[in-house]
Amino acid sequence: MPVKKAARAGNSGAEEKFIQLFCDVFGPEQGQYVYLQYPFTDIYGKHRTIDYAFACANGRVAVEVDGTAWHDPSKVSEDKYADDLLKQNSMVHEGWKVFRWTDRQLERSEDRVKDELVTFFGTDPRLTLMDDDMPPQRGVVYDLKQHQQDALKNLREMRENGNSIAMLYEATGTGKTVTAVSDAKSYGKRVLFLAHTKELVYQAYEKFREIWPEVSVGRFVENYRELDAFVLCASIQSIERNLDAFAPDAFGYLVIDECHHGTADTYKRVLSYFRPDFTLGLTATPERTDGEDLLETFQSVAHRLDIRAAVELGVLVPVRCIRIRTNIDLRDVRINGFRYNALDLESTVMVPGRNRLIVDTWCEYVRNKPTVVFCTSVRHADELAALFREAGIDARSISGKTNPAERKQILKQYEAGEIPVLCACDLLNEGWDSPHTQVLFMARPTMSKTIYMQQLGRGMRTCEGKDFLMVFDFVDNANLFNCPYSLHRLFNIADYHPGGMVLGPKGSIRWDDPDLNINWDIENPILSDKDKITPLFKDFVTPF
After folding, report:
1. pLDDT digit string (tens) for 326-342?
2. Rounded to an integer, what distance in angstroms lies between the CA atom of residue 524 and that of residue 368?
3. Is residue 525 assigned to a domain?
4. 321 and 462, same structural domain?
5. Which of 161, 215, 239, 243 could form a disulfide with 230 if both were Cys (CB 3.0 to 4.6 A apart)?
6. How far apart are CA 383 and CA 376, in angstroms?
7. Global pTM?
């Protein structure tokens, strides 16, 4: 177990037992954040050590393992007992949260100690390096792409012309956050960055620390309340509930990530409270399903780079498409505004034949390619993942109901190539990108252009060895009034060619090209050329 040892590290059996139990609960990879015999100085300047120390979302934690021979008040001198109390009081005074177990508890009550660890620290304590072990912050120099330089230039000119609010409309994966951080840094005033998920908050926190290390960067989400940071990355929910903790003019620059949510009541309350000099909204999907116009809130577009333009510039990978026909009929599914009725859709789509078609398609045509399958519901994702596993594929389902620690581990394993298929419900629509992904299965019918674009964006980042993204559209029967989005409908493309390029660099899309450049594994070369594609998919592919 990778435990950090301080200069005066000991090696008692009880201490080794504690780290064993700790890693059993939180995973062996968390051992790297635990410090054995961590040095500190008490209130009288005496140098001491803490048995185990680590930093988590709740602050700095000290764990003392007490042997009866050394700490039992009835067995040690009064001076030794008083000295133990001084040590603990000094730790509390310095802001440590102190927890104590006896060596007998560690040996004889393992399950109870494990339960207490979960009670005290949760299932995902978000351990970090101690402050004195953090690597020096040198900053990261980003080679901004041309579209990012254009956006920064436009933002500067807009402020010079008196504008106080603007929006960046750029496709997922094109570096909106880097552009926003760079602009905020150049502006130089205190920053509040708002997002609607904790994953987006943490991503922004890391990006600000990389690009702007000269200032303090804090978080206001979950158990973090770092109010005095120069840059504060926060969840919209946490800020909305604690507006009275901030003065209206506390921030000079406000960033709203995924600002297509910005017309919701929660955002309106926050936007009407703060009085920054400049507000910047970021979005890859400016359309809202409720029909409200973002430009009523974000009055000017500083820069626009949609998916098609980003692919043509080489910022995102090209996209190819294969359409798989099903015999599912969506015409009787009720519609709530611009959405399918969730219960109707689940009962219509989640049938054994369609699920089996999804699994069989993957096994026959894209086996071993990192794939995300977008599903209609949590139950749909669970059942599809189980069906994949029955076929010998280590697929996992992931949704908002997945335990955070488990979700983090699943995504880590997927990115490492240990899990080939993720069956997802909504959770991965925003705040997660995977350059590793080569295939998307659009198995969730949706009438929302925003949702389809969000799902498409998950796999469009560039990656070494990745020439394109392959999208499988599962096409169900529908009518004019409840037709779901597909890749061809999204981009208004009438011609369909199995495996053909839908988005690519300018001048690269030629339907008569004898070589479609679809090169998969040598052991699975079934999509190697145009002559093979059509007959292989004749039973599955439907014309547009």
Report:
1. 988 898 888 876 678 88
2. 10
3. yes
4. yes
5. 215
6. 11
7. 0.55
